[in-house]
Amino acid sequence: MTSQTQPEPPILEIENLSVAYRQGGDWLLAVREATLQIRSGETYGLVGESGSGKTTLVLAIMRYLGENGSVRSGSILLQGRDLLALSKGEMRQVWGKQITMVPQNPQSSLNPSIRIGEQIAETLRFHQEMSAVKARSRAVELLEMVHIADPERVVQNYPHQISGGMQQRVMIAMALSSEPALLVLDEPTTSLDVTTQAVILDLVKELIQGRRTAALYVTHNLGVVAQVCDRVAVLYAGELVEDAATADLYSQPLHPYTRGLLDSVPRLGELKSQVQLRAIQGQIPPLGDRSLGCVFVSRCPLAVEICEQRPPLYEPDPSRRTRCHRWEEIQRGEVNAKQPASEQVRVGIEGGEEPGGSPLVLDLEDLDVHFPINRSLDEILRGGEPQVVRAVDGVSLEIKRGKTLGLVGESGSGKTTIARAITGLEVKTDGRIDLLSMSLPADLSKRDLDTLRHMQMIFQNPEEALNPYFTIGESLRRPFVRLLGMSAGEADRRVEQLLQSVSLPASYASRMPGQLSGGEKQRVAVARAFASNPDLLIADEPVTSLDVSVQASILNLLNNLQVEHQSSLLFISHNLAVVGYLADTIAVIYLGQLMEVAASQDLFEPPYHPYTEALLSAIPLADPAADQKQIRLEGEIPSPTDIPSGCPFHTRCPRFLGDICVEEIPPWRVDETTGKRYYCHIPVDELKAAQERVFSMEKAE
Amino acid sequence: MTSGTASGTQRIPTGAAPGRGRRFLLTLRQLYGKPASAVGTSIFLLFVFLALFGPLVAPYGLNQQIALDARQGPSPSHLFGTDTLGRDVFSRVLHGAREILLLTGVGTLLAVIAGTFFGLISGYLGGWVDEVIMRFFDSLLSLPALLLALLLLGTLGRTESSVLIVITVVYTPIVARVVRSVVLSVKSKGFIEAARLQGESLTWILFREILLTALPALTVEAALRFSYAIFLVASLGFLGVGVQPPSPNWGLMVKEARVAVSQTPWALYFPAAAISIVVIGVNLMADGLKRVLQATSSESI
């Protein structure tokens, strides 16, 4: 978008760079012949899934590959200087001065035992040979630059005393302190919450705009790229498959992989009844097993004979490149690069409510889960009320048969605790949990097999979901044997059907989990959860740890099995786009309390609870042309040991009214037209008048 | 019978998973992948062989005294020489292999079984059960192993079974700690919670789900404990509080030969060398096992 017409030489110029790792006696190519240029003042996005080689490429640029990695061919020029020709000693002059980096996890990059100010000053003294006194005052200035409100105090703090968002600001301040030629940002917001991420992204944009620094932004998140980058390169299996200006890439991708990536995640506001997610078939081939032709050939819907040969770097126009033989046909619209919709998405009976209303499967009333904090001896002796963490505070929810309730919240909001209290893995403090009109005991060990059969759960991390020492068959057999009382032989036959229902070959029964990919493991976990034909399924962030291209297939699978089994689903996620897509009703939770409950098509329309409004505004939309209001939350989420009085959101609320929000508990207000209810002092009419739709996107065709 | 040791420590890694024979062979092959663990494993297997067949190979009886040959240096007829009583040191070292490996092997096995049991219970149940078990074990661990052994032998008498009890008591707390730490790291993982939600019994969760994941760490620990147990039994023999003469305990042999070290130094050197070689060997093997099993488990987790 930054249309620099003057022929300024790029800051970073990479040409035909190939990087390989040694494994056994062989060199396996991890990046092949990558070519890219980043100009001064430009933010360049590098997008790829895990295993795409993005980290390898970055490490190679920084000359920081491990012992077993090496650059096999090509060149890397930084401001015209050949980095590959430099010695380690000379590179040390480049690191931290000409190339700086903002890491994914600021916590592990800051020394926990040195004060923030001292850490920044150290960099300044080392790279810019500043005097100690000057470095210290410069550190304060740098913190001001990244909008830290109280820099004099923060320089005195140790890293653990400030939040993750603040730590990342400190890292950004340090990285920019030497006015580097190249700034590498490696997933800088991946470990942060959405509302914090939005603030950090704004900051990155603001700081880079005013500088001549070239930025390389590495991420897997297409939304983030659309928000901050001028150009985007898409990396797949070590090959830069496409490279274009951000707006062009999103409006008309010229490589089937880019198309696949864009189609595999729901955009904010899309519903399952309107749009179908298309998963990219298959999986990324491992190193050493990659096609010598086009790397995407094994998963490409457009693959033809010529694709067995490696595509050259085509240049559809001077500002974009693609490695697809068939780009012209794609551009002219003669072929459709969309992935086939193999898994037909079924939508449950829409609006087909039974006259008396469908029966409630789950009914929560005033659920409380409080965790006591261990007191010190001193506190015990002084007496007084023991402190508690109010993880979940007075939550009431219900799910009807066959319906999906989406529960969305940031980390620490208590969403997982709700799930665990329902399953009994965590013991509730108070309130009522009714499953099929039967009141459930709090503790899992007091529930009988019959209750357990009605309710199953899918966990977040597929790597931990299956016992690594059981075969897939053994893991899947257990629910049949235990919950349905089947004989071993009968169970084995059912295991085969079960594998089939999640599109895995029957031969997988004899495999160990270590032989499966993450997506396949999650399929098995989904299969296991459906084995006992549960009435209620709880899915806690089931796709969060999966790659973008396999997320869609798991979401589709979950949805289809749910419709088939007529199960109700409690779907928990921090990703509002995913929740919005899958759920019929959405509940927004903040600090253990519900803020808003609405049908998913209504959630995206005003009136919004001010927190929902801020959430919707913070989500990076995967559409550079989208129009999104900028509402940013100040400060950090308060600690759940010390929940603010009155409305829990009042400390950060952009629509703060005054004393009433601090002193009085807000009422539940109901929007009569939609049935949406929210927890706020502002009445429906006023809120409606004050708010506009937070975002609008052109609907994908 | 003598094979109690050998299979005791080796059967563990293969567990109940399918193709246990194949996995055992694979582990063995990987052990031979690095020189250090290859040497260690060879030493261990050699001593297991000696324990099994040594007494058959031994040219002389255990306590056979050849009066004419007393105090002879190593020679083709007496490879390791003879001691002051005219007993063949080579034959006694061979017999000693069986006695010490059997004793320590069974002792280690008992400690591993007891330690695993208490470790699983303590780690999984937590709360006061954990407190009681672990604080009791802490109190046992607060005494030096040798001191604890002396105390126990003082009350139990100096028999072989007392030595067995000593090994079990001394090493159970250590094994329990190792197992407990594994339990703590897996108990909150999804597959254990999924098992609970499937209504699996406590026994199933502990002895199937968790025990399997603890096996790699347990195997390594068992091998290490085994080498320390050899050390302990030899030390007790040397102090004269363990197994009593005329047993061919290597520690005891060193003690007996010490008095006459100027006349028959070989009678001291050879059993002492046997102790250190087997201890070093088992330790090297344990290191190798750690490398191999951790590599395979990180692959599968």
Layout of helices and strands:
The complex is a heterodimer of chains A (701) and B (301).
Chain A: E1 12-23, E2 26-38, E3 43-47, H1 54-61, E4 69-78, E5 81-82, H2 88-94, E6 99-102, H3 106-109, H4 116-128, H5 132-145, H6 151-154, H7 164-176, E7 182-186, H8 194-209, E8 214-219, H9 222-228, E9 231-236, E10 239-245, H10 246-251, H11 256-264, E11 314-317, E12 320-322, H12 327-331, E13 360-372, H13 377-382, E14 388-400, E15 404-408, H14 415-423, E16 430-435, E17 438-439, H15 449-454, E18 455-458, H16 462-465, H17 472-483, H18 488-501, H19 518-530, E19 536-540, H20 548-565, E20 568-573, H21 576-582, E21 585-590, E22 593-599, H22 600-603, H23 610-618, E23 627-628, H24 659-663, E24 668-670, E25 677-679, H25 684-690, E26 695-696
Parallel strand pairs in A: 3-8, 3-9, 6-7, 7-8, 15-20, 15-21, 18-19, 19-20
Antiparallel strand pairs in A: 1-2, 1-4, 4-5, 9-10, 10-12, 11-12, 13-14, 13-16, 16-17, 21-22, 22-25, 23-26, 24-25
Chain B: H1 4-14, H2 20-31, H3 35-57, H4 89-125, H5 127-141, H6 145-156, H7 160-186, H8 190-197, H9 202-239, H10 250-259, H11 266-300
Helix pairs in contact in B: 1-2, 1-4, 1-9, 3-4, 3-11, 4-5, 4-7, 4-9, 4-11, 5-7, 6-7, 7-9, 9-10, 9-11, 10-11
Question: Mind explaining what this structure looks like?
Answer:
The complex is a heterodimer of chains A (701) and B (301). Chain A is an alpha/beta fold and 701 residues long. Chain A folds into four domains: 241 residues, P-loop containing nucleotide triphosphate hydrolases (Rossmann fold); 71 residues, no CATH class; 227 residues, 3-Layer(aba) Sandwich (Rossmann fold), CATH 3.40.50; 92 residues, no CATH class. Chain A has 25 helices and 26 strands. In chain A, the strands form five sheets. Chain A has an eight-stranded mixed β-sheet with strand order 6-7-8-3-9-10-12-11, sandwiched between helices. An eight-stranded mixed β-sheet of chain A has the order 18-19-20-15-21-22-25-24, with helices on both faces. The two termini of chain A are 24 Å apart. About 1% of the residues of chain A have low confidence. With 301 residues, chain B is mainly alpha-helical. Chain B has one domain: Orthogonal Bundle (MetI-like fold). Chain B is elongated. Chains A and B meet through strand 18, helix 16 and helix 17 of A and helix 8, helix 9 and helix 11 of B.
